[in-house]
Every structure is written in C-alpha cells, then in structure tokens.
Specification:
185 residues, alpha+beta, 8-stranded antiparallel beta barrel, 2 helices, 9 strands
Length: 185
C-alpha cells in the first residue's frame, strides 16, 4: 500500500513539474461556437480550426481564426454569414490578444482548475474592441485546457444586419471557446 501511495505521489509531482517546466502551449484545433437567439430562429455555427497560444510565464494569450472555417447546419446560412454579414473576403480573420490577470501568477499552477480574468483586444469584422471576461484554465495529466464564454454585440463590430432579417439575428451573440493545448516546442 505504501508503494502505491509513494508511486501516486511521485506521479503527481512529476506531472506538476512537467506543467511548471513548460511555459508555452499551442493548439491548432481550438473550438469556437457562436449562438444567436432571435425571435424567429436560433443560429449556431462551429469552428474547429482555431489557433491559440498561451504563454504561462508572461500570462499572455493569442487566438486567431478564419471566419470561413465556421460551419453552419444550413449551407445557405453559411453563405449569407460570409458574404452578407462578416464580409469574409474583406475581413478573413478574427483575433484576440490579451493577458491573464491572476493574483499569484500562473507559473505556480499544478493539477486543478483555475478561474482567471482575461483582458485584451478582440478584432471581429476589422473592428477592434476591448474585451474583459472570465476564463477557466485546467491542468490535468500534464496537459493544459481552457474555456470561456462571452457575448459580442453585432453593432460594436460594424456588422450590419438588413432590416428584412433583423428578427432572425440577435443583437448580441454568445461565443463559447474551448481549447486543448499541447506543449509548444
């Protein structure tokens, strides 16, 4: 029994050291979902090709995604999203660059889940606005994952909704992001 307990403790210690020894984490398969709830319909789209890097030593995060990588249930919705609202040929990417604000620093992270404050600049449709929100970072088995939910007002990013479909698209959309990071080498 003592051997199992010692082995378990050693495994936890090595896992914590592996996470602490690694400062930068990357994913190219982050997931972002947006959801619009309006009187006439709900619209949801998913992008599973989101690039993100986290630097724990500096408390920095960057996210970069192609707008055309969002997939909708209906192809016609996807076409209207890219051509009429997001103008994806003119504004192909959305980005976020920010910092984590935690009182004791992220380098002390060990196994567990941590709520952090994130502040930075969100660029959508070529318009950059400040964004402050809560995010969750989790360390498990030497890996880092993260998630956050926030809302974006369509008009804040100069996205024009034609009057004919104003009851189909919400003024504010909910964005949910999840990331499973790998050590960046």
């Amino acid at each position: 029994m003592k051997t199992i307990k010692t082995l378990f403790t050693l495994t936890l210690l090595l896992t914590a050291m592996a996470v602490q020894g690694q400062d930068r984490y990357l994913t190219r398969t982050g997931h972002i979902k947006f959801f619009s709830h309006a009187p006439l319909e709900d619209i949801e789209a998913h992008n599973n090709k989101v690039l993100s890097i986290v630097d724990l030593a500096k408390g920095q995060v960057a996210v970069d995604m192609l707008i055309k990588a969002f997939e909708f249930e209906k192809k016609l919705m996807q076409e209207h999203f890219n051509e009429n609202y997001m103008e994806s040929d003119k504004h192909p990417k959305s980005t976020f660059k920010g910092t984590f604000e935690v009182p004791d620093g992220l380098k002390s992270m060990t196994e567990g889940s941590y709520e952090v404050d994130v502040t930075g600049d969100l660029t959508v449709h070529g318009v950059t606005k400040p964004l402050s929100t809560k995010a969750t970072l989790a360390v498990a088995g030497g890996k880092l994952s993260g998630g956050l939910v926030f809302k974006v007002k369509v008009k804040d990013h100069d996205i024009k909704i034609p009057k004919v479909v104003v009851r189909n698209i919400a003024d504010e959309v909910e964005v949910t992001a999840t990331f499973d990071f790998e050590p960046y080498k």
